[in-house]
Specification:
This protein has about 130 residues and is of the alpha+beta class. It has 3 helices and 8 strands. The radius of gyration is 15 Å and the shape is globular. The structure holds carboxymethyldethia coenzyme *A. Carboxymethyldethia coenzyme *A binds next to strand 3, helix 2 and strand 5.
Length: about 130
């Protein structure tokens, strides 16, 4: 597959309002978008660092994957997302190389991207997202 860049780094937080001031007031970044992804039961806040984004993830339900993550591991880095040219082909390649897919087909994520997750059990314990514009 052809990965052109890290698209974003996802960080699990309990509460966006509490988390955002560190990124804005200390790191001097600007939150340019807050968006709810109902499908994933999260509210997201985005910051740009050059070409790469930081995505803060606040769970909107106890059923959210992010709520379960925080309960088990606490707040912190949740996933890394790579931008690929062709998501369908990238997923087929991953599957053919024995990687367990969480999403067998692309779906819509935040910021209108097509996204799919790979299971951390087959990616060295790093929850990995592939995304395509
Ligand atoms: N990073 C690394 N490992 C993780 C993880 C994460 N973010 N989340 C869970 N795990 C680990 C668990 O600790 C567990 O490890 P152990 O068996 O060693 O304890 C293992 O993965 C499996 O966990 P599980 O209990 O079987 O499954 P969960 O119900 O916790 O689900 C996962 C895990 C990855 C399948 C689920 O979180 C998922 O489908 N994630 C993809 C979707 C997602 O994360 N959405 C939120 C972000 C959406 C967005 O960015 O818009």
């Amino acid at each position: 597959m052809n990965i052109s860049q890290i698209e974003h780094i996802g960080i699990a937080v309990k509460d966006l309002k509490t988390a955002i001031p560190y990124y804005e007031d200390v790191l001097g970044l600007k939150c340019y978008n807050i968006e709810e992804v109902a499908d994933q039961k999260v509210k997201t806040a985005f910051f740009k660092v050059g070409e790469v984004k930081i995505e803060l993830l606040e769970p909107t339900s106890e059923e959210s994957a992010v709520a379960k993550f925080i309960e088990k591991k606490g707040e912190g880095v949740h996933h890394i997302a790579f931008r690929v040219d062709n998501l369908v082909d990238a997923l087929a390649e991953c599957e053919s190389k024995g990687v367990q897919l969480i999403d067998k087909a692309p779906r819509k994520g935040a910021e209108g991207l097509n996204i799919a997750f790979l299971h951390p059990k087959s990616t060295g314990s790093v929850l990995t997202e592939l995304c395509e514009e």
